[in-house]
Structure formats: C-alpha cells, structure tokens
Design goal:
By secondary structure, this protein is an alpha+beta fold. Helix content is 29%, strand content 27%. It is built from six helices and 15 strands. The strands form three sheets. The chain has an eight-stranded mixed sheet with strand order 4-3-5-6-7-8-9-10, sandwiched between helices. It has a five-stranded mixed sheet with strand order 12-11-13-15-14, with helices on both faces. Helix 1 runs antiparallel to helix 2 and helix 3 packs antiparallel against helix 6. The chain is globular, with a radius of gyration of 18 Å. Bound molecules: 6-O-phosphono-beta-D-fructofuranose. 6-O-phosphono-beta-D-fructofuranose binds next to loops.
Length: 294
C-alpha cells in the first residue's frame, strides 16, 4: 500500500526566495532525466580547472535560463562560468549546477547546490538569505535552509514536492567522518584529529560528491571536510558556490562550519571562484578540528 504523504507547502516566508527555489525544484527532474545521455567528458575545464562533462554544461545552461526568467533573480553565477550574468531582480543566485559530476561514469550520487544572496557576488556567507540543494540519489530530494531551520522534500515528479522532514537537525551522536584529499597531503593536525575520531569509533564514509557526503553527516551525525592540502593550501572547494551555501544549511540544522581558522560564513571572498578549506557538521567535532589546527 502506498504511503499517503502530506501536500507540499511554501519553502520559506519570503515569496521571492520561494520563487527561486520553485525554479530549482521544477528543473531538477529535467536535469536528472538528461544525465544518461550526457556522460561524456568535454575537452574544456571549468574556471577552477575541473574536468567538465556534457551534463555540467546542460545543467548550467538550463538553470541559468530558467533562473534568469524568474523576476526575483538579479544575477546568476555558476561554478561553470567565468562571470556573473546580470538581470533586474532582488536576489543574486550562485549555483553549482552538477556537484560531483565525476560520479557520472561510476553511477554514484550527484547534486545541485544553490545559494541565494542579497548582495552582488562574490559575497560573504553573511549575505545568504537561503540555501538549498537537490540530491540525485535513488530518490530526488531537496533540502532547504532559511537560516533558522532546514526542511527536506521529496521531489516526486514534475516539480511536485512533498515534505519528508520539516526539522532536519545534525544528529547528536556522531558516527561518520568524510574527509577529501590524500591523507599524506593533509596537515599533521588533521591527520591526528582523524586518528582520534577513528579511535572513538567514527566510520569513514566518503563518496566524492560533496552533497551526498554532507547528507551522510546530516543523516548519521559526524563531520565532512575538504582540508587545506600541502600543494593546495587554499583547499579545493569553492566558497560562493559550495562551502558557504552548504555551511549555511548545516548551521541552520544546528551544526557548525569553519575554514579551519574561524567561522567560514564570516569570510569575505575577493574572487567569485575563490576556494577555501572546509570543515562542516557536528559542532563539537568542528570545534575540535579548529582547536587542533590553531
Ligand atoms: O567540487 C567538486 C567535488 O566533486 C565535490 O563534490 C567533492 O566533494 C570533491 O570535488 C571530490 O574531490 P576528490 O575527487 O578530490 O575526492
């Protein structure tokens, strides 16, 4: 017997933000449906030097066109584009159209990340008014944060969205950790804090797509990181497109986000595609990492 789910409702109490999030939800199934035909790697790279796939370009073109049609959108910036596309509207939207697209060939999860800022990009995490992500897993789900709370929806089809959990919170008992980069390239302090986590019986869960790995943390409790590396002290992940929106969402769920030195959301990036070291999840674990790195 099928489960009777409650009807959908507004995402936030700001109609303009809801309009932006509606576009993302409505577009998600088209992106998902297009993946099987767009697995090919392209010759080019994105502005930060990542290999790109046909699906990255498709998702970027589609989301850019749809979001710029929305009256609420003043600008569209994407991890796949050098510059910001401007329009008239209220909110500046930063998007990672297909996060984790290197998982395409291995058929593992990917997602779409959205940050809704009220200042022109590049902007600080303090300028976020909402953040959301879509996870293309066995089901398509969407998590939405308004700064105070996080809701999870099932995108059941053709933009229909059904609330699954109206109060997503980082679980109190951490059980997983998920750290990117090679262990020999981590700072020694990161290595030693991970050894301590393992001694406390935290399990490694790393799948190579930020959104999927952060969802493990939101589901099972724990911490995700992509630390500074020996050859890359600035880290790998991008501030405006990935780290600030996901950090805002996890803090809205009662967790913490840090750049290893302090609150990541307080940073003010100079460049649109700027990277940052990234530690996010359970507040106590993030505090311990920060203390160890200090
Ligand atoms: O930013 C792209 C991304 O694919 C993230 O989704 C993910 O967390 C990370 O890069 C994976 O990097 P690596 O391949 O080094 O593990």
């Amino acid at each position: 017997m099928s489960q009777q789910l409650p009807p959908s409702r507004d995402w936030t109490d700001d109609a303009a933000v809801d309009a932006v999030l509606d576009v993302v939800a409505d577009t998600a199934h088209e992106i998902r449906g297009a993946l099987c035909e767009r697995r090919a790697a392209l010759d080019g790279e994105n502005p930060t030097g990542d290999r790109t796939y046909a699906a990255d370009d498709y998702a970027d073109e589609l989301l850019g066109a749809r979001l710029l049609e929305c009256d609420a959108v003043a600008a569209y910036a994407s991890e796949e584009r050098e510059t910001v596309l401007e329009d008239e509207g209220t909110y500046h939207v930063a998007v990672d159209p297909l996060d984790g697209s290197s998982n395409l060939r291995s058929n593992n999860p990917m997602g779409t990340i959205v940050g809704v800022y009220d200042e022109p990009l590049p902007a600080s995490g303090q300028d976020l008014v909402a953040a959301a992500y879509v996870l293309y897993g066995p089901n398509t789900t969407m998590l939405v944060a308004d700064g105070d709370s996080v809701s999870e929806y099932l995108l059941a089809g053709d933009g229909e969205r059904r609330p699954l959990d109206e109060d997503v919170t980082v679980p109190a008992d951490p059980t997983v950790y998920s750290f990117g980069g090679r262990r020999p390239d981590w700072p020694e302090s990161v290595e030693s804090v991970v050894e301590a986590f393992e001694a406390e019986r935290l399990k490694l869960r790393y799948g190579g797509a930020l959104i999927a790995d952060v969802t493990q943390v939101l589901t099972h409790g724990g911490v995700f990181a992509y630390p500074e590396l020996e050859e890359r002290p600035e880290g790998k992940l991008r501030y405006c497109f990935e780290c600030a929106p996901i950090g805002f969402l996890v803090e809205s769920a009662g967790g913490r986000v840090s750049d290893g030195e302090g609150p990541l959301l307080d940073r003010d990036p100079d460049e649109l595609h700027e990277r940052t070291p990234f530690y996010v999840g359970d507040g106590d674990l993030v505090d311990r990492i920060e203390a160890e790195l200090a």
